[in-house]
Specification:
It holds the Pfam family DFP. Belongs to the PPC synthetase family. InterPro entries: CoaB-like_sf (IPR035929), DNA/pantothenate-metab_flavo_C (IPR007085). It is a single chain. By secondary structure, the chain is α/β, with parallel strands linked by helices. The protein binds ligand PAZ. Ligand PAZ binds next to α3 and β11.
Length: 318
């Protein structure tokens, strides 16, 4: 029975990819990934290749028309992903940051909403200078970002739709397979559960004159099991579970842990997600709190996950 279910799941995944619109720039994304990962593989130390984490961040969209005018969106500011990326980099990991276009970016968290207009001003002789009140934030953003990218520690890849996200995640995961247990997936993106299959999607803008809209959404196939079983079977995998009802949060996180064979699931509740998360593993459930109102919950969370990743690599190597 399990084998039949498993085959069904694989068929669903295959048909999702076969019917998805072609990923633009797939060749250039692949070239960037190959270069980034080859560089890490060649820098092997005593524990194997350098550690690389793929951090996913922000929400995926579901287009309603092929020439898309309208879409269903998924909540996520990208704050968790951007903050976590900074802590991984600080701990010596290289990061592939798969993020939703327009969401929060690493090192840019202290910038105002409209940084270009709010941080810079024109001088009397028409030069541009940083506004005094934002100069620290601008310096942090520019120096942190440039050091990570030009040092070859950070590769940023943007997505918008569910189709792009899953195709890019597959490219990343299959490229990271060569890193074995040194690879980690930290899947903080809010991924749509339902979508309109490309072949049944309206080509042009849906007309309002046709009356109320009646639309059937298909279920997005669960990719976590494919990631674990096929794309990067030796990688250390952490997924996230967001709920608004605390009563069901831990049960849902526990189910995800078992069903998708995750190494850890980070459970969080919408209104308290910046203050506390619960790290669920096979052996324990640990509440992780931020130290104070000015600190990040991602700091102790990433520290804990890195310890677990270290133990995982040690066990695999035995
Ligand atoms: O991006 P953000 O900081 O606003 O929120 C982070 C989050 C709640 C999207 C993330 O922690 C999370 O739980 N992601 C998975 C969501 C899900 O269950 O699909």
């Amino acid at each position: 029975m399990d084998a039949i279910n498993n085959n069904d799941a694989v068929d669903e995944v295959n048909s999702f990819f076969e019917s998805a619109p072609l990923l633009k720039d797939a060749n250039s994304i692949n070239a960037k990934l190959t270069q980034f990962i080859n560089q890490k593989s060649s820098l092997s130390g005593s524990e194997g290749p350098k550690r690389v984490v793929c951090v996913t961040s922000g929400g995926t969209t579901v287009p309603l028309e092929q020439r898309c005018v309208r879409y269903i969106d998924n909540f996520s500011s990208g704050h968790r992903g951007a903050t976590s990326c900074e802590y991984f980099l600080k701990s010596g990991y290289s990061v592939i940051f798969l993020y939703r276009r327009g969401t929060c970016q690493p090192y840019c968290r202290s910038l105002p909403d409209d940084p270009l207009l709010e941080c810079f001003e024109l001088t009397d002789d028409s030069c541009i200078k940083v506004h005094e009140s934002h100069s620290e934030a601008v310096k942090k953003a520019i120096s942190g970002h440039h050091a990570a990218v030009s040092g070859g520690f950070l590769l940023k890849l943007p997505f918008t739709t569910i189709f792009e996200y899953l195709q890019m995640l597959r490219l990343i995961a299959t490229s990271m397979k060569t890193l074995g247990p040194s690879a980690m997936f930290y899947l903080a993106a809010a991924v749509s559960d339902f979508y309109v299959p490309w072949e049944s999607m309206a080509v042009h803008k849906i007309q309002s004159a046709s009356g109320p809209l009646d639309m059937r959404l298909a279920q997005v196939p669960k990719m976590l099991s494919v990631l674990r079983n096929q794309w990067a079977p030796s990688a250390f995998c952490v997924s996230f579970k967001l709920e608004t009802d605390t009563e069901i949060l831990l049960e849902k996180a526990g189910n995800a842990l078992k069903r998708y064979k995750m190494h850890a699931v980070v459970a969080n509740e919408l209104s308290t997600r910046k203050e506390v998360v619960i790290l669920v593993t096979n052996s324990e459930k640990v509440s992780v709190y931020r130290e104070n109102d000015h600190s990040d919950v991602e700091s102790p969370l990433i520290k804990l996950l890195i310890e677990k990743h270290t133990s995982y690599i040690a066990v695999i190597k035995e």
